[in-house]
Amino acid sequence: MVLISIMNQLDQMDKKIVDALAVDAHMSSMEMSKQLKICAPTIRRRVNRLIKNEIIRIQAVQINRVKTSITVSILLKVESNVIVRTADLLASQKEAGFIVLTAGYFNIVCLCWFESVEAYSRFLNSVLYPMEGVLDTDTLICTEYRKYAFVKMNRAADPTKRANKPVDDIDMKIIELLEKDARQKSTRLAKSLNISAPTIRCRINDLLDNNIIRIQAFPNFRMSKTIAAVIALKVANGSVNRIADYLSDRTEARQVMLFTGSYDIGVWAWFETIQAFSDFLKDVINPLEGVEKKEIAIQTEIKKWVHQW
Questions:
Q1: What is the rounded distance in angstroms from the CA atom of residue 15 to the CA atom of residue 161?
Q2: Plot region of 194 (φ>0 → left; ψ -120 to 50 → alpha; else → beta)
Q3: Residue 131: CB partners within 8 Å, gap ≥ 6?
Q4: Least confident window among 87-101, 114-128, 159-173, 223-237
Q5: φ, ψ of residue 146 in degrees (nearest 5)
Q6: Average pLDDT rounded to a whole number, residues 139-161
Q7: Is 224 helix (H, G, I), strand (E, B) or coil?
Q8: pLDDT in tens, 259-273
Q9: Hey, what domains does the chain have and what are their CATH numbers?
Q10: How far is CA 215 from CA 24, 27, 140, 245, 255, in A?
Q11: What does pTM read for this prediction?
């Protein structure tokens, strides 16, 4: 379920459509019609209205970036007078895809994607280490996505293994355009990339079939009052899979990743109210057996998000 307060302004039919689009917006109106028992013309009309009113945007999301890049989460505690400046500096880096300000020990959380270990090393030496006002940092390398953008990953497949057909530069260009607007026609993409439309369609289908991308609907954060939290957990040996799977089953969790570093599991979760967040901590996080250390911070502002409006 898409946990955003603006959903309260929509009727039940709208909510069903948005929930379906949040999982897979690539399905046709006819396919959605069979799934929701709503006639296809009504679905098309309502989807167009939701998009026109800027309630949702349909974009591509790389649901398993382990296959295409190195994912690194950077937690920073910086002096209060340089928080905005530091966040803006990070936001200007092309490698940074997700940056939020938080209320907690760490006041900035940044998720970056790097093409290689060398690119990651250059980022550390040229961007992170020279920063002024940084009091403490923790860098965590993602080893596996368990859930991303509300999509649970298939553990049966090796998450570090690339698809049979490796992702090349053309694929990445297509992904970048679809991340901005996945409703673009193949003919428009073909014109932008100077590639034939049939080739574009074939490559998009390959990316979808190999679980590299998923086409989904994303809510407009400017219109919502969602409470979001970043949760990092250090757990005992043997408890990682159990806890990660349990958290991935929670509807509140938007993404769940496994890390190497000071923490083993990272969670980004959405809540409709502060009470719902409090209940999640009390009923879900605190009773977890095997948790040795946890860091919990409420998100106060999104400075950059790959799916930001």
A1: 36
A2: left
A3: 78, 86, 89
A4: 159-173
A5: -100, -30
A6: 75
A7: coil
A8: 999 999 999 998 988
A9: 5-58 (1.10.10.10), 164-210 (1.10.10.10)
A10: 6, 9, 27, 23, 16
A11: 0.78
